[in-house]
């Protein structure tokens, strides 16, 4: 008997699986594979036959180990692995039935392109290895570092086209830059000292982000944010536009703008059916999240960076940027409410928010988690310790609390901190680590100081510099922009809470709203709602720019005219924040 006659069609298995047959009937359509004398030698099996043998082995193992009490899949749905097969039931030569994501790989695989990318990677690695041993690097350290940074940053910008994750590119860039710095430094010991100092500064931000992200993830796992979203009951299109905007604005001031965007876009999916109106509401969320994160030290990663390194203090950044941030949202909202998407909407949908139930003690976890985030500036003011110590305090309290309230409940492990740690955006943290270490190497080599001197000579207006950085953040990630600015100008050039640092915080935070790829909030919205880049450019970018310009004008007017942006009576109620 020919070997191929013993190979069961994969479609037969999936057809049986979809029909929801009992376990015995499923096994009956999966006969064992006899290895008779007619069976060719295993050494002579083709790669296709090897895949078929492995496939049937996995099918038989699945049939044997399946529980008879487990529910059968819905007849109308295909099992995940079925998507990997074409109409004839054949698997692509490079796909794996164990990896559901191979479906996307199969549809987009281009061998020549991948071969070209591999050759480029190996070529660059070989060139880098050769350059390390060349005296040219030592003699031209700054040029070499700038070239590596430009190449690495190009890889980050075009990560979608190159199919390289920006976190990996950022880490490789950081390592290469510090290797070049070790070659060009007067001695290796000096380079190690500089790296140790840079690592200490970067670690404070990384620890803070890990703690804050874990706290937010724990609250979200308990459906704590339903306390906020369930109170949005209006269905009037214009009213909903304003409510969504300002709820996101204040939510982002306590959380980060990315988390606020995810929470609010998820809410939109339950309030509004797919339409142009829902897209516009999502754009409002992006603008509001970026504006709300700019006026508090914990609302955006860039303001957190400036706060941790002492460029801004809690009270003064809130006093200086609250009104400009409100204006940057309040100007686009009435303009967007006049659009055809809003006026032509007859949205009167009923509430669909009852699909998810809050976890047990969800209100308690929400209160403790929110309190832990808000308490960080207070902790810094009272103790003088860096903010990451305060966020670790809050995480520790929440960890013990969730262990206590879910003690003995094996089915609620996902509500505890260990599971939350597996769900946070670790690759995003590693991206920040790579970028900040890269910028630290440029600062140690004096490259950023030379750039700052050049800007001072050719653009003496600090307001124009800060505004240009905000516009650039619409195209380039604001984290490296702010990190580079911090390396270019120290506290001796511009003291804490100076106009320059507050403008940098505002412009880098709100400038990203002008393009959908300009901020983490925009990218999240783009992915969740499948928004086209050019749709956002046509429909939203003009409104976002109007808010950005209005916010800058408001800030400069308040500073030049010495207008108090917050009443002194309000400030006097929180005197312990004056030095934070």
TrEMBL record:
It is found in: Membrane. GO terms for molecular function: antiporter activity. GO terms for biological process: sodium ion transport. The keyword Glycoprotein does not apply. The chain crosses the membrane at residues 115-132, 138-156, 240-268, 280-308, 320-338, 358-376, 388-408, 428-452, 464-488, 500-528, 540-558. InterPro entries: Cit_transptr-like_dom (IPR004680), NhaD-like (IPR045016). Belongs to the NhaD Na(+)/H(+) (TC 2.A.62) antiporter family. This is Na(+)/H(+) antiporter NhaD. It comes from Rhynchospora pubera. The lineage of its organism: Eukaryota, Viridiplantae, Streptophyta, Embryophyta, Tracheophyta.
């Amino acid at each position: 008997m020919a070997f191929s006659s013993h190979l069961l069609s994969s479609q037969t298995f999936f057809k049986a699986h979809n029909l929801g047959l009992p376990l015995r009937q499923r096994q009956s359509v999966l006969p064992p594979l006899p290895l008779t004398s007619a069976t060719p030698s295993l050494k002579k099996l083709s790669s296709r036959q090897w895949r078929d043998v492995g496939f049937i082995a996995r099918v038989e193992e699945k049939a044997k180990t399946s529980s008879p009490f487990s529910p059968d899949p819905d007849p109308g749905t295909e099992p995940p692995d079925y998507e990997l097969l074409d109409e004839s039931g054949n698997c692509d030569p490079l796909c794996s039935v164990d990896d559901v994501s191979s479906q996307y790989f199969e549809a987009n695989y281009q061998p020549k392109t991948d071969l070209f990318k591999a050759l480029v990677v190996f070529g660059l690695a070989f060139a880098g290895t050769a350059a390390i041993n060349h005296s040219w690097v030592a003699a031209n350290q700054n040029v070499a570092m700038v070239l590596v940074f430009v190449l690495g940053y190009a890889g980050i910008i075009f990560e979608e086209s190159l199919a390289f994750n920006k976190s990996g590119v950022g880490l490789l860039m950081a390592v290469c830059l510090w290797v070049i710095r070790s070659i060009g430094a007067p001695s290796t010991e000096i380079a190690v000292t500089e790296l140790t100092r840079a690592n200490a500064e970067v670690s404070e931000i990384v620890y803070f982000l890990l703690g804050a992200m874990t706290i937010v993830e724990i609250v979200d796992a308990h459906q704590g944010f339903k306390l906020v979203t369930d109170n949005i009951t209006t269905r009037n299109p214009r009213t909903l536009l304003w409510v969504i905007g300002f709820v996101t604005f204040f939510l982002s001031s306590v959380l980060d703008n990315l988390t606020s965007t995810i929470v609010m876009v998820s809410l939109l999916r339950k309030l509004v059916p797919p339409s142009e109106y829902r897209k516009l509401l999502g754009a409002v969320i992006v603008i509001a999240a970026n504006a709300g994160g700019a006026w508090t030290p914990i609302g955006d990663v860039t303001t957190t960076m400036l706060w941790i390194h002492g460029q801004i203090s809690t009270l003064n950044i809130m006093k200086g940027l609250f009104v400009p941030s409100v204006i940057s949202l309040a100007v686009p909202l009435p303009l967007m409410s006049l659009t055809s998407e809003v006026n032509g909407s007859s949205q009167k949908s009923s509430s669909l928010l009852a699909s998810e139930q809050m976890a047990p003690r969800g209100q308690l976890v929400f209160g403790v988690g929110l309190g832990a985030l808000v308490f960080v500036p207070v902790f810094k003011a009272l103790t003088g310790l860096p903010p990451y110590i305060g966020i670790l305090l809050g995480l520790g309290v929440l960890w013990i609390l969730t262990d206590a309230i879910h003690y003995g409940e094996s089915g609620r492990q996902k509500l505890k901190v260990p599971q939350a740690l597996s769900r946070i955006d670790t690759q995003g943290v590693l991206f920040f680590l790579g970028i900040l270490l890269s910028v630290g190497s440029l600062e140690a080599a004096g490259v950023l100081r030379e750039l700052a001197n050049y800007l001072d000579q050719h653009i003496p207006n600090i307001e124009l510099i800060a505004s240009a950085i905000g516009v650039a953040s619409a195209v380039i990630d604001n984290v490296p922009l702010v990190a580079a600015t911090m390396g270019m100008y120290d506290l001796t050039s511009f003291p804490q809470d100076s106009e320059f640092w507050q403008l940098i915080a505002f412009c880098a935070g709100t400038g990203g709203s002008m393009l959908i790829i300009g901020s983490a909030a925009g990218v999240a919205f783009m992915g969740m709602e499948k928004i086209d880049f050019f749709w956002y450019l046509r429909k939203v970018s003009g409104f976002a720019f109007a808010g950005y310009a209005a916010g800058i004008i408001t800030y400069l007017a308040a500073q030049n005219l010495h207008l108090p942006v917050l009443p002194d009576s309000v400030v006097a109620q929180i005197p312990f924040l004056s030095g934070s």
